[in-house]
Amino acid sequence: MLETEESLRVIGVSRGSEFSPNHVDNDAAIFRITVEELKKKGCEVTVYPEKEFVEKRIAGEFIFDMARDRATIDRLKELEDEGSLVVNSAYGIDRCVRKAMTELLMANGIPHPKSFIIPTDRSFEPDIFPCWIKRGNSHAMVKEDVVFVECREEAEHVLADFRNRGIPEAVVNEHLVGDLVKFYGVQGTDFFYTFYPSEQSHSKFGLEAINGETRGYPFDVKKLKAYSDRASEVLDVPVYGGDCVVSSSGEIRIIDFNDWPSFARCREEAGKKIAECIYNRITDSRKK
Question: Would you state the pLDDT for residue 228?
Fold first, then answer.
C-alpha cells in the first residue's frame, strides 16, 4: 500500500502536436482520459507539454509520457538513469524507431516481413518488389516517410528523396498480401483491441488502401496478443499499438509497432487500463 495519497505525485508529459500527424485530437484525448483515471486512483497529476518539461528541467519520481521530441526523450533517459519510473520508457520509445524496431523484432523471433536495412546514399539493391521503403531514423512524420514501390526506378526515387531530406538509412519490408489488422494493447492487463482500419476509416496517411478490401481471413487473436505482448517486452513499451497482416492461411506477421498510440476506437476502456498499468507499476516499485 502507498503511504498516503498526497505522497503519490505523478508527472505527465503530453505529446507535441507536430508528432501527431492527423491525430492531434485523438492523442490529446487518450492522454486526458489517462490523467483523469489516475486522479480517480488518488494520484496528484501535473501535466507538462514536451517543450516546457525540457525547458524547466522538470523532475519527479513517477512519470508517464507520450513523448516523441528528441530533447524530451533525452531528458527522460537522464531521469530514468537517476532512478525515476517512466512509462513508456524513453529507451523503449527509441526502440520503436523503425530501424531499431525491425532489428529487435527479427532478432527475437517475432513474426515479421522479410526486411532489409540499407543506406540511402547507395543504389537500391534488394530484389523484393513490390515492397515498402520506410525512413529508418524516426517514426513516420509525413506521408513520404513510408512509400510503397513496385519497381527499382520507383525505389531509387524514394532513396533520392530520403537523401535530400537528410535521412541516412531506410528500412525495406516485403509487401505482404492479406488483411491489414490494427491492434492496441496494455501490458500487464487483459486489454487487447483489434480492428480492420479499411472498414473504419482509421488512417494517418491513407496507405492502408494499398492492401485492398478486407477479406476477413480468420486468425487467432490470442496468438496475436501473445506476439504483441512479447514485442512490447522486447521493446520495453507497455502501452502499445501496431499493425499486422493476416494471410489467407491465418499466418500473422507484425509490420509496425508503436509506443502509446491514440487508441481512438477504444479510448475510454483503454484509458482506464493504461492508468491501471501505470498505477500498478508505481505501487510495485514502492514495494521494492
Answer: 97
